[in-house]
Amino acid sequence: MSEVLSKTSGVAWTPVIGLEVHCQLATKSKLFCGCANEFGAAPNTHVCPVCSGQPGALPVMNARALELALSAALALDCDIAPWSKFDRKNYFYCDLPKGYQISQFDKPYCTGGGVELASGKRIHLTRIHLEDDAGKAIHDRGPHTFVDLNRAGIPLIESVTEPELASADEAFEYLTLLKEVFQYVGASDCDMEKGSLRCDVNISVRLPGEELRTKVELKNLNSFRNVKAAIDFEIQRQIEAWESGDESKYPVQETRLFDPNRGVTRTMRAKEDAHDYRYFPDPDLPVLRVDPAELEELRRALPELPAARRARYVAEFGLSEYDADVLAAEREVSDFFERAVVGTDQVKETANWITNELSAARNERGPDASLAELGVTPEGLAEMVALVAAGTLSKAAGRKVLAAMIETNKSAKVLVAELGLEQVQDTGQLEAWCREALVGQEQAIADLKDGKQKAIGALIGQVMKASGGKADPSKTREILMKLALGDG
User: What does the pLDDT look like over 288-319, one tens digit per residue?
Assistant: First the structure.
């Protein structure tokens, strides 16, 4: 277990952390009605009698939501229940029009499973259950609270871990890996800015060997960075409270919010227990049964998951763990790489072009930009990389060609001809440029004769300038050395 030293006493305390992650499923419609599951629409335009809780309206289960929920559970190696049921979780808030949330209490659709961290430590899941989302209450527009019910009824899966995480870093890594799995199987876009992924943290601290102490819930953390910062703050807050010796300051079971501007947590409300929600089976929804044949079909349809891809990239392609991690982090990037290296031995070079130049071009277009928006196909990138490997293009010219490919959607070979970027390998022309570069460079020539190789860089730079970047660098180096040492 990880230990955290008290900032005041220096005593080692052990954090105990569990996470509850709410993930909106990527369906076209809501969980129990036909209203669109669409972010960014005008407020209260995707609302009907079912999701607004009108008397007599009856819910109907969204089959696609169940498929996505099952795929996520299978990818996390969960145990799928042959049957589960929906329950009403009763509480009253302005963004919950029904006065209850349809969730799963004692019979969730799956249990078990987990996520393995890079250290080999496995974080076990207690359960994942299906439920519909609440609406959205907006409190920051003056003295009034506004309510948007477009989100009410959107399908969610809530995954709950065992209290096995022991640090903010472990929580950050777990969330990153969980997000990758959900995205790989297509369950969700996991966009925290849009509310597709939200995290609650249950946290307590104890001295080594002690039983669990009072836990506190941190609610609705909307970024992984905030999760990490909130946990780090709350650990020290609880340690200081316990060490104060003042029972009135001891942590109590409550829900707290994190203020990212001040970097502190503050009390929101007393934490409810399960009995406070008065769960009972939803009388309008039948038992949810999973067909074994359909479940097996979903299992066969699962993609190779990110952890497996990372291991294969290292073992099969000889990539570094860092490169494998970057490539496998997003399925779109990983699939692009897989297609780009078909039939080529330029695997490392292809990986570098994707993780450097293509990633930079994508980032320039904004945080939500995709590789597809760049207009460069995996096969097109492979063609360009092959031209560089063959010496037809220098790397500098390759960058120009790639930028032009993004702008024009033309092929690399066409652009090489149009832009006149084909690398010059003609020995006579290269020698002429090299002789010109050596004029007046007696000191550099003397340094080279003394074995000082650094002098060659400036000379190659002059040749590249004279050639407009088209001179073959390796041949240029060879000719310069030959001329400088008096061998030509």
Answer: 999 999 999 999 999 999 999 999 999 999 99
Same domain? 57 vs 206: yes
| CA 91 – CA 93 distance, rounded (Å) | 7
Phi and psi of 362, rounded to 5°?
A: -70, -45
Residues 6 or more apart whose Cβ sits within 8 Å of residue 113? 73, 76, 77, 78, 79, 124, 125, 128
CA distances from 440 to 25, 467, 483 (A): 69, 19, 14
Domain-embedded: residue 288: yes
Q: Which of 364, 388, 419 is the last residue of a domain?
A: 419
Read off the pLDDT band of 392 (50, 70, 90). confident
Place of tokens 């702008």: 407
Does this model's pTM top 0.70? My answer is yes
Q: Residue 228 and residue 145: Cα distance in Å, rounded?
A: 29
Residues 368 and 451 placed together within one structural domain of the fold: no
Residues in the chain: 488
Range of the domain at 376: 304-419
Determine the Cα–Cα distance for residues 276 and 132; give it in Å rounded to an integer: 19
Q: How far is CA 357 from the centre of its chain?
A: 20
Q: Half-sphere exposure of 164 toward its Cβ, with a 13 Å CA cutoff?
A: 14
Strand partners, 23: 157, 197
Q: Is residue 299 part of a domain?
A: no
Residue 167 lies in a domain: yes
Tokens found for residue 238:
């609880």
Q: Say whether both 266 and 312 belong to one domain.
A: no
- In-domain check, residue 450: yes
Cβ(135)–Cβ(96) below 8 Å? yes
Q: Is residue 137 a contact partner of residue 93, using CB atoms and an 8 Å limit?
A: yes
DSSP tag of 193: G
Q: Are residues 229 and 276 in the same domain?
A: yes
Could you tell me which residues come within 8 angstroms of residue 206 by beta carbon, excluding any fewer than 6 positions away?
13, 14, 16, 212, 213
Same domain, 264 and 287: yes
Residue pLDDT, tens place only, 186-245: 999 999 888 899 999 999 999 988 999 999 999 978 899 999 999 999 999 999 999 999
β-pair partners for 141: 144
Q: Are residues 273 and 314 in the same domain?
A: no
| Structural domain ending residue among the three candidates 266, 294, 322 | 294
CA dihedral 314, 317, 322, 325 (to 10 degrees): -80
Give the count of alpha carbons within 13 A of 272, CB side only.
11
